[in-house]
């Protein structure tokens, strides 16, 4: 049947070519008189030409920790200086991918986005560039929207893992809409974010580009077409509309016991609330929580994607997920407020592209660092780990708290501290699969910036984290008789702190700081407090003394690569001898200016102090660190944008 369709296509093109005049374009091109659009058994024809269009480099296309993010108007090319911004970046990206593929153009790519403003327009532009460059199979999810975890799953699993990469249109947890952010990131053939070698090469190509290929003329792809509809853009390149859910749901079912979870969802007294923040994760939450597990629709809030995220900032933290936080019986600082028997047992939130998570119980906020440690300690409740006898490796980003470290040590699990950026976990997860070295799977990892995940895919996964917690609750309540009070999230957290101690932890974000000022402050820390002699710096009136400073660098244990300048660490000592630290780094996820992040941590073994709100417990440490680095004087900021 495929052979007959191909013959039919050739015949239609040949017939059409005989009656069409020659085409012209802004550069060299190969004319394609007609392009077939195949919908089921029907074939439609539209005119199109492949063109090579002259362009010039556009400054500033260096990807950060997770792709390239800019204001959406930059990507739209509103100013002449940014004309062809998307085309330049995508041409450089696929040229890099081809170079890494032995000089041969990759043949199968997923193109999907989180649904933010300019999502669908960018998909159309990208598909034309890919087709003109000879990418044979371009897979686009129905509606154009797909969470980042789902893209990773589809790269790894669809048609036996035949996709060689995925182009994801997202600025993650950054706002969307006119005047807000847009971004593009690339995931490689194992579903993992592109490494620094790839993004560095991509950036170099953006500085040298002189032309790009694209299609001229022809109708746009119907992103709302039925699944499996195929649009033949050139004789060798086609766009196929795919089911966005299939592979992701399949991989979640391999991690968790869906039958048991479905039964637990009906348990009297157990309720759940999921906040999609109008991002890409919402439809996936509905598909899994409602359609697969049987939770009521009332368990979902803001699960309809919107181009501007409903005017909200889609970052699942205490500040921006304020509505959920309140519904969970929490104050803005994460401390318990008024909650009742009607308060949901567990609540969670996703960010814009569905990979981050916030976890809370009734009157109990679980910090991302604690959540990671508690998932590790309760691995027997999660089939993905229990089937293998537990995790074979765990990791956290360096700025995250050491809560995971003490659990890993107690359970004798290999532990790693990496730079911020999920790509650094990728090598550890793929150590056996990609490098034929030690196998660390099943693997558990996370970042303090509300990212948690495992080796089921190669991205953090917000919905996975929630299902892990529901599984932990299900296991904790297996012997609780019906009608008796359920073991709560707060019970699990308190028990963990009693066993391991509490790592008080919070983060101060100073967003959109003048870049020169931010760098000046970092240079002061590096010169005076890390490289300099701090022995003469005594304790202040709080009694907190600076012990020493260091700059974090990382040598990858799998491929041997070294990454430097990954955060400045100031180690402190309280009057009673307790250790604490403050970490400073500039975030690579913003689109304008610089975001200064200050991470604060203090270990507390005394159970009588475990109930204090983290921002309160760490206030004196914050003031000491801010004063030492002269943050207010240098940046002009007298308060952080967010404390979480």
What are the main properties of this structure?
644 residues; alpha+beta; ten-stranded mixed β-sheet; six-stranded antiparallel β-sheet; 21 helices; 27 strands; 32% helix; disordered N terminus
Give a description of the structure:
- It is built from 21 helices and 27 strands.
- Strands 3-7-6-4-5-10-9-1-2-8 form a 10-stranded mixed β-sheet, with helices on both faces.
- It has 644 residues and is of the alpha+beta class.
Helix content: 25-40%
Strand content: 15-25%
What would the principal axes of the Cα set say about the shape?
Answer: globular
Major β-sheet strand ordering? 3-7-6-4-5-10-9-1-2-8
Number of strands: 27
Describe the sheet with the most strands.
10 strands, mixed
Total helical elements: 21
Task: State the distance separating the first and last CA atoms.
Answer: 58 Å
- Low-confidence spans: 1-35, 41-46
Write down the Rg: 26 Å
Q: Give the mean pLDDT.
A: 91
Secondary structure category: alpha+beta
Brief sketch in words of this structure:
This protein has 644 residues and is an alpha+beta fold. Strand 24 (568-573) and strand 25 (579-587) form a beta hairpin. The radius of gyration is 26 Å and the shape is globular.
Indicate the topology.
Elements: H1 2-17, E1 29-39, E2 42-54, E3 68-71, H2 72-76, H3 85-100, E4 108-113, H4 119-132, E5 137-141, H5 148-157, E6 165-169, E7 181-187, H6 196-206, E8 211-216, E9 230-232, E10 238-242, H7 246-255, H8 258-264, E11 272-275, H9 281-292, E12 300-301, H10 322-327, E13 346-350, E14 357-361, E15 364-366, H11 368-377, H12 383-386, E16 393-397, H13 403-411, E17 415-418, H14 423-429, H15 431-435, E18 443-447, E19 451-454, H16 462-476, H17 489-500, E20 502-513, H18 515-530, E21 545-551, E22 554-555, E23 562-563, E24 568-573, E25 579-587, E26 594-604, H19 614-617, H20 619-628, H21 631-635, E27 642-643
Parallel strand pairs: 4-5, 4-6, 5-10, 11-12, 11-13, 16-17, 16-18
Antiparallel strand pairs: 1-2, 1-9, 2-8, 3-7, 6-7, 9-10, 13-14, 14-15, 18-19, 20-26, 20-27, 21-24, 22-23, 24-25, 25-26
């Amino acid at each position: 049947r495929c052979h007959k369709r191909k013959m039919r296509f050739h015949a239609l093109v040949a017939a059409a070519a005989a009656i069409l005049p020659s085409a012209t374009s802004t550069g060299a091109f190969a004319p394609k008189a007609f392009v077939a659009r195949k919908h089921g058994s029907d074939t439609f024809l539209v005119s199109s030409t492949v063109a090579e269009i002259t362009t010039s480099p556009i400054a500033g296309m260096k990807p950060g920790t997770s792709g390239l993010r800019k204001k959406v108007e930059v990507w739209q090319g509103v100013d002449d200086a940014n004309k062809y911004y998307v085309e330049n970046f995508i041409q450089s990206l696929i040229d890099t991918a081809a170079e890494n593929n032995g000089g041969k153009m990759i043949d199968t790519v997923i193109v999907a986005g989180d649904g933010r403003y300019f999502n669908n327009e960018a998909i159309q532009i990208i598909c034309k560039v890919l087709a003109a460059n000879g990418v044979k199979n371009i897979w686009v999810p129905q509606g154009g929207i797909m969470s980042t975890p789902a893209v990773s799953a589809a790269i790894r699993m669809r048609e036996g893992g035949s996709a060689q990469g995925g182009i994801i249109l997202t600025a993650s947890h950054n706002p969307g809409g006119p005047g807000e952010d847009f971004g593009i990131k690339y995931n490689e053939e194992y579903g993992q974010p592109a490494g620094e070698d790839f993004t560095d090469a991509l950036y170099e190509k953006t500085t040298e580009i002189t032309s790009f290929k694209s299609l001229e003329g022809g109708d746009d792809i119907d992103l709302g077409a039925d699944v499996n509809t195929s649009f033949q853009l050139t004789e060798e390149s086609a766009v196929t509309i795919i089911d966005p859910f299939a592979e992701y749901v399949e991989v979640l079912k391999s991690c968790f016991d869906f039958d048991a979870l479905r039964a637990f969802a009906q348990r009297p007294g157990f309720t759940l609330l999921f906040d999609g923040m109008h991002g890409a994760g919402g439809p996936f939450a509905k598909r899994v929580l409602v359609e697969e597990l049987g939770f009521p629709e009332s368990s979902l809030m803001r699960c309809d994607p919107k181009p501007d995220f409903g005017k909200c900032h889609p970052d699942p933290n205490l500040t921006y997920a304020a509505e959920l936080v309140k519904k969970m019986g929490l104050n803005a600082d994460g401390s318990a407020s008024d909650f009742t028997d009607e308060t949901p047992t567990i609540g969670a939130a996703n960010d814009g592209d569905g990979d981050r998570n916030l976890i809370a119980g009734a009157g109990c906020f679980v910090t991302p660092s604690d959540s990671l440690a508690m998932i590790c300690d309760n691995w027997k409740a999660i089939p993905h780990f229990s089937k293998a006898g537990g995790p074979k490796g765990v990791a956290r980003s360096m700025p995250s708290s050491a809560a995971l470290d003490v659990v890993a040590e107690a359970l004798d699990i290999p532990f790693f501290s990496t730079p911020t950026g999920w790509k650094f976990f990728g090598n550890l997860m793929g150590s056996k699969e990609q490098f034929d070295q030690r196998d660390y799977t099943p693997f558990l990892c996370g970042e303090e910036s509300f990212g948690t995940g495992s080796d089921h895919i190669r991205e953090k996964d917000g919905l996975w984290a929630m299902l892990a917690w529901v599984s932990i609750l299900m296991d904790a309540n297996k012997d609780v008789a019906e009608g008796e009070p359920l073991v709560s999230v707060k019970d699990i957290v308190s028990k963990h702190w009693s066993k391991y101690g509490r790592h008080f932890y919070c983060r101060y974000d100073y967003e959109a700081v003048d870049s020169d000022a931010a760098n000046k402050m970092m240079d002061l820390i590096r010169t005076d407090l890390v490289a300099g002699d701090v022995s003469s710096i005594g304790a202040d009136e709080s009694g907190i003394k600076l012990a020493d400073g260091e700059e974090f660098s990382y040598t990858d244990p799998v491929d041997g690569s070294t990454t430097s300048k990954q955060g400045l660490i100031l180690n402190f000592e309280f009057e009673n001898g307790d250790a604490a630290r403050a970490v400073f780094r500039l975030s690579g996820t913003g689109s304008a200016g610089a975001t200064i992040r200050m991470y604060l941590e203090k270990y507390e073994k005394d159970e009588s102090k475990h109930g204090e709100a983290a921002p309160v417990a760490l206030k004196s440490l914050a003031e000491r660190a801010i004063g030492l680095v002269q943050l207010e004087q240098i940046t002009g900021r007298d308060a952080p944008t967010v404390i979480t």
